[in-house]
Amino acid sequence: MAAVDLTTHPGHLARRLQQAHYLLWNTMVSEEITSPQFAVLNALVAEPGVDQRTAGERVGLDRSTIAEVISRLGRRGLLDKVRDPQDGRRFLLRPTEEGLRVHRKLAVRTARMNQIFLAPLSADEQTVFFDLIRRVADAAEGLRNPAEPATAPN
Amino acid sequence: MAAVDLTTHPGHLARRLQQAHYLLWNTMVSEEITSPQFAVLNALVAEPGVDQRTAGERVGLDRSTIAEVISRLGRRGLLDKVRDPQDGRRFLLRPTEEGLRVHRKLAVRTARMNQIFLAPLSADEQTVFFDLIRRVADAAEGLRNPAEPATAPN
DNA sequence: CTGAAATACTCAGTGCCCTGATTAATCCGC
DNA sequence: GCGGATTAATCAGGGCACTGAGTATTTCAG
Which helix (DSSP H) or strand (DSSP E) does residue A82 occupy? Predict the structure, then answer.
């Protein structure tokens, strides 16, 4: 009977939270475009012409995953992908007209969905909710990125 | 410039939180056994002899995912899977000796990891953190399970 | 200018997560 | 008892997420 109480495990809670969000997104926002796809599209709307790696960095996706997401957005005709004439390693990405249209439509629906999702919390609690999650996520991401250890070698 | 600020989107934050957790788990707990696998093993330690569907319900995994996770735990020799003699549709699951040993070892490491993960928050904030996430996740899960609409048909 | 290092992207492999369709077994009304 | 509904598990298929290895291009030291 050495079992552990998972409701006090942040990782388990994070997974459940994400699954719950996934389901709600599917019913309230889109069955075609996923939340990560929208995030990437949103990054391209904010910064048209970025390369793949940067786009991934903006939304927190690694090199492999961002490649897949971009390939799907490309197949749907939501973005253009052209070689950077200045640097033949890069692809420059920007939303198509259709991509902009889809982004606008989904932005509205996403806002509605977030309201429903966060309805159990008061306005103050929502602020705290964002703050706490952001702090934990930022700190954990920082653990993997030594963030330029300036001088001290050891 | 109609781009949206994703740092106020709970779904996006939930994904980043989960990714951060995944990385930390990999470095601090195990590269072999994943967090969902540990969750299932933990459920079997708590309730030896449950069937697959129930185990999935306990940890929040759907029928397809729980089948994959159980198959992996089986391959590693961490659980036994036998037909229920009472009901030939079910498989009864219980941890092996090795499964119990692995569970004990990982439970310790997981506790250590959770401390690191939550270190950016004070003790009070950690309590709030759990409470808020749990409330949002529970509510969203409730939206999909009409939870036995007793009498009212409409 | 040339070869080594760094960088952007791709590919192969593993695992998580969902839906819809299918199969096998049990349950239940008659 | 028998046939239809329900239930447990599987299978096929799509998408997200990571690592390690490989390719092409650019950069930079000498």
Answer: strand A79-83
pTM of the complete model: 0.90
Closest-CA distance of chain B to residue A150, Å: 23
CB < 8 Å to A37, chain B: none
| Dihedral of the alpha carbons of A118, B3, A30, A131, in degrees to the nearest 10 | -20
Cα gap B45→A133, rounded to integer Å:
30
Cross-sheet strand order for the sheet of A79-83: A50-51, A91-95, A79-83
- Whether residue A119 lies within 8 A of chain B, CB to CB, comes out as yes
Q: How confident is the model over B21-55, as pLDDT tens digits? A: 999 999 999 999 999 999 999 999 999 999 999 99
Q: Rounded to whole angstroms, how far apart are CA atoms A51 and A111?
A: 27
Quickly tell me which residue has 């409701």 as its tokens.
A7
What's the CA B81/C1' D22 distance, rounded, in angstroms? 41
Q: Give SS3 for A81.
A: strand
